[in-house]
């Protein structure tokens, strides 16, 4: 009977339709009631998703790391576009509930995208950037041999695109010339101040050199940045076996500089004692011995001596030095030096210990340094305080040499 009535009146609503309408009406009523709490809900939801955002942004968060990694992958990977489609509006309450979560995802994606823009875009770019950091410039030089005079001629012409080693953004380059493995044949150019593209045009003669010995040597060029008060910084090096060069006439070369092989490693240790006498206002520095010094010469050794500078408020007051120990990486000095230091000036005083390698034909090389004062490194400060705490007693301690 019900079905016949429905068939007879096709325009009348069915019982199912009326039931659905009633449910929608009740839902809308509940929605109206809940809207009264809208402000409170937003505060609660905002607080909850604010905590979620902080969790995502934490560096230790596993989710944060995985999303950054995913965005670095090529397009089509795990990155998801959470931006709304133009013209689309939310149709139900569930869309509004998920909106804070979409905002969190958008913010994470935005931050990660900025990081991606600031960082190299691929591993290939990173590798290329690493290679560019190794660009040390290049050097032009000539070499030839005069058979009649038994003389090898080396001309240092110029260098280009040298890296800046000084804080001013430039360098003071010069070149050392060796015939390996002989130390005694080391020569060097003049220093070109504040110049990353220096022109030397200097000629060096190695006279009385039989040809059969010349072809057993390696021409070694080392470019350095000159520093007046500290160790010269190595810039780069070039080496050419002379048996591979046609020496019958002057040959000119352009060679890229390579990292210097002697720029790292331990510099050795120095044992010294300090003795403070407050009544005499003096400090006695005893340079006892060194061990495992860095070999600065081509022959695998050094000719060390020690300089001791007394500094007051960064001004040099007095200098003393030991004798030179020939070809010795574990020298024993046992030399003492006394410095007059008033007690009131002790806190502003620094004693600089510099171990040097003596060179007869060129500048002496710095092997390593030690700074002794109230404000030096932990080991140096300990030695200084022990000296003050034990007046009139020599206090000995080993120190690692630093560049």
Describe the structure.
With about 400 residues, the chain is α+β, with helices and mostly antiparallel strands. It has eight helices and 16 strands. It has helices spanning about 1-10, 15-35, 40-55, 60-70, 95-120, 125-135, 210-215, 380-390; strands at about 140-145, 150-160, 175-180, 180-190, 200-205, 220-225, 235-240, 250-255, 270-275, 280-290, 305-310, 315-320, 330-340, 350-355, 365-370, 395-400. The strands form four sheets. The protein has a four-stranded antiparallel beta sheet with strand order 5-2-1-8, with no helix packed on it. It has a four-stranded antiparallel beta sheet with strand order 4-3-6-7, with no helix packed on it. Strands 13-10-9-16 form a four-stranded antiparallel beta sheet, with helices on one face. The radius of gyration is 38 Å and the shape is flat. The chain starts with a helix and ends with a strand. About 20% of the residues are buried.
Count of DSSP strands: 16
β-strand percent reads: 25-35%
Global morphology: flat
Mean pLDDT: 74
- The span between the termini is 106 Å
Sheet with most strands:
4 strands, antiparallel
Query: Which secondary-structure class do the elements indicate?
Result: alpha+beta
| Backbone CA Rg | 38 Å
Binned, the helix content reads: 25-40%
Order of helical and strand elements:
HHHHHHEEEEEHEEEEEEEEEEHE
Taking strands numbered 1, 2, ... along the chain, how are they ordered across the largest sheet?
5-2-1-8
Total helices: the number is 8
Provide the low-confidence segments as ranges. 1-10, 34-133
Keywords: Calcium, Calmodulin-binding, Cell membrane, Cell projection, Cytoplasmic vesicle, Exocytosis, Lipoprotein, Lysosome, Membrane, Metal-binding, Palmitate, Peroxisome, Phosphoprotein, Repeat, Synapse, Transmembrane, Transmembrane helix
GO cellular component, one term: lysosomal membrane
Subunit structure: Homodimer. Can also form heterodimers with SYT6, SYT9 and SYT10. Interacts with calmodulin (CALM1, CALM2 or CALM3). Interacts with CD63; required for localization to lysosomes. Interacts with APP.
Subcellular location: Cytoplasmic vesicle, Phagosome membrane; Cytoplasmic vesicle, Secretory vesicle, Synaptic vesicle membrane; Lysosome membrane; Peroxisome membrane
């Amino acid at each position: 009977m019900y079905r016949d009535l429905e068939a007879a009146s096709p325009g009348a609503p069915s019982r199912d339709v009326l039931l659905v309408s009633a449910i929608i009406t009740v839902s809308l009523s509940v929605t109206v009631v809940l809207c009264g709490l809208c402000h409170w809900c937003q505060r609660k939801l905002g607080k909850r998703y604010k905590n979620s955002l902080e969790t995502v942004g934490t560096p230790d968060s596993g989710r944060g790391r995985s999303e950054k990694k995913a965005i670095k992958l090529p397009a089509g990977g795990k990155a998801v576009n959470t931006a709304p489609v133009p013209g689309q509006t939310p149709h139900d309450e569930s869309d509004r509930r998920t909106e804070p979560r979409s905002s969190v995802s958008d913010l994470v994606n935005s931050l990660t995208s900025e990081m991606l823009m600031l960082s190299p875009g691929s591993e290939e770019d990173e590798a290329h950037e690493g290679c560019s950091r190794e660009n040390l410039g290049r050097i032009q030089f000539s070499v030839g041999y005069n058979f009649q005079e038994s003389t090898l001629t080396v001309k240092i012409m110029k260098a280009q695109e040298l890296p800046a080693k000084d804080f001013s953004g430039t360098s003071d380059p010069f070149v050392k010339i060796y015939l390996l493995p002989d130390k005694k044949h080391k020569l060097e150019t003049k220093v070109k101040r504040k110049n990353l593209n220096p022109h030397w045009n200097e000629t060096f003669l190695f006279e009385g050199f039989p040809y059969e010995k010349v072809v057993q040597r390696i021409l070694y060029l080392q470019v350095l940045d000159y520093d007046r008060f500290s160790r010269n910084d190595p810039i780069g090096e070039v080496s050419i076996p002379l048996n591979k060069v046609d020496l019958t006439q002057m040959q000119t070369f352009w060679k890229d500089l390579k990292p210097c092989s002697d720029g790292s490693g331990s510099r050795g240790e120095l044992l010294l004692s300090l003795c403070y006498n407050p009544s005499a206002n003096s400090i006695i520095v005893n340079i006892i011995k060194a061990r495992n010094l860095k070999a600065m010469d081509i022959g695998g050794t050094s000719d060390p001596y020690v300089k001791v500078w007394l500094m007051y408020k960064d001004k040099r007051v007095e200098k003393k030095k030991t004798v030179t120990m020939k070809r010795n990486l574990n020298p024993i000095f046992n030399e003492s030096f006394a410095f007059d230091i008033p007690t009131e000036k002790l806190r502003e005083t620094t004693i600089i210990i510099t171990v040097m390698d003596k060179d007869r034909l060129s500048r002496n090389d710095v092997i390593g340094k030690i700074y002794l004062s109230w404000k030096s490194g932990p080991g140096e400060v300990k030695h200084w305080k022990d000296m003050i705490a034990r007046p009139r007693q020599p206090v000995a301690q080993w120190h690692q040499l630093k560049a």
